[in-house]
Design a protein that fits this description.
Inositol_monophosphatase-like; 5-stranded mixed β-sheet; hydrolase; about 35% helix; His_9_proposed; metal-binding; D-Maltodextrin-Binding Protein, domain 2
């Protein structure tokens, strides 16, 4: 639920601000997309966890805008250090979720921005700059705006796993135990697809798919999708049915009935 300290006028302020932040991120990122001069540094000690000029530029402009308009709020971003909150509100930022896809030239990456209080994220944006598509949820709003105009967001009513479309980013999800748990759900689903990063959560909120199951996520990977999906009528928990937390496990479902069935299989 939104922080009770927010007034209706502050609702309007936050809605306008989160769109401004997404607009600024678009402007910072697009010159780098499919640009042969784009380079990537590897943040991982093992494996490949890229960061680019576009990631850093987008987070920097978001932070600068927040410091100008909401200096009392906290900031938690992927690329730079956290800023403590003095207001009880924190902005959670992933400037490019899906940097591997960004490097490969696919359009399934996105900008994730969320606003959270002590109970978790209550306003979020999943923005895809290249196709000009924005999914917003929270504070009484749930809509997508893009090439086909603006439409309300609403999750699907699928209640049978055998009818469900399931997404995850990596086929090799998590640990061996997490992989086995995911496979139990995947084997029961109608269709399983991979590699969509944050765009899978947007598709769930828009009513095109039914489940997203992932492991190893950080708060900035999932805060905005939680707000958008919940505003659209869906449910997002960890694999134990509680709030998404330090485990990094995520089960996002179109409705509580389907969520319960997927949860039972994840738990074995």
């Amino acid at each position: 639920m939104p922080d009770p300290r927010l007034t209706l006028s502050q609702h309007a302020e936050m809605l306008a601000l989160i769109e401004t932040l997404a607009d600024h991120a678009r402007e910072a990122i697009l010159p780098w997309f499919r640009n042969p001069d784009l380079g990537a540094a590897n943040k991982a000690c093992n494996g490949f966890d890229p960061v680019t000029q576009a990631d850093r530029a987008a987070e920097q402009i978001i932070r600068a805008t927040l410091l100008q308009h909401r200096p009392q709020d906290g900031i938690l971003g992927e690329e730079f250090g956290p800023k403590a909150s003095e207001s009880g509100l924190t902005w959670i930022i992933d400037p490019i979720d899906g940097t591997r896809g960004f490097l490969a030239g696919t359009p399934c990456w996105g900008v994730l921005i969320a606003l959270a209080d002590g109970d978790g994220p209550f306003l979020g944006v999943i923005d895809q700059p290249y196709i000009s598509e924005r999914f917003l949820g929270g504070l009484g709003q749930a809509w997508v705006a893009g090439p086909q105009g603006r439409k309300p967001l609403a999750t699907r009513g699928t209640v049978e796993l055998g009818d469900a479309i399931l997404f995850t980013t990596f086929p090799e999800i998590g640990t061996s135990a997490e992989q086995a748990a995911f496979t139990r759900v995947s084997d029961s689903a109608r269709l399983t697809r991979y590699g969509m990063d944050c765009y899978a959560y947007a598709l769930l909120a828009a009513g095109h798919i039914d489940l997203v199951i992932e492991a190893g996520l950080n708060p900035y990977d999932i805060a905005a999708p939680i707000a958008v999906i919940e505003a659209a009528g869906g449910i997002v928990t960890d694999w134990q049915g509680g709030p998404v937390g330090a485990s990094g496990q995520v089960l996002a479902a179109a409705n509580p009935v389907l969520h319960a069935k997927a949860l039972a299989l994840l738990q074995g």
